[in-house]
Backbone:
């Protein structure tokens, strides 16, 4: 009887853990999709590859990097969250660095020259 109780408790813990990890991944994906649509991008991939042009996009990039950082720290306790956290940490940091380097300004200047 004790083994059955322990097995049920472990099974419930695993189910809760998988549910939480899946929920975090789905919420992150929905947020990225909503931000991409709001910014006028056709896909999430296009949004993640782009350089932030406005202050709002820069704030969203910082938020994305910080969410990834928090998930990576939580991943030290719950390893699957580390894999989920690396995704927003990489893309958020990349957007911040591109913005700091002024690459968005270069892209805008190139678009102006090609459209003229």
Residues:
């Amino acid at each position: 009887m004790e083994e059955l109780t322990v097995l049920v408790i472990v099974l419930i813990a695993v189910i809760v853990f998988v549910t939480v990890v899946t929920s975090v991944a789905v919420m992150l994906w929905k947020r990225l999709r909503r931000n991409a649509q709001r910014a006028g991008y056709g896909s999430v991939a296009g949004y993640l590859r782009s350089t932030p042009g406005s202050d709002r996009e820069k704030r969203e990039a910082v938020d994305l990097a910080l969410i990834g950082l928090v998930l990576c720290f939580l991943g030290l306790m719950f390893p699957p969250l580390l894999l989920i956290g690396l995704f927003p940490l990489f893309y958020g940091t990349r957007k911040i660095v591109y913005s700091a380097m002024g690459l968005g300004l270069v892209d805008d200047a190139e678009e102006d020259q090609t459209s003229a």
Remarks:
- The radius of gyration is 19 Å.
- The first helix runs from residue 2 to 39.
- The chain has five helices and no strands.
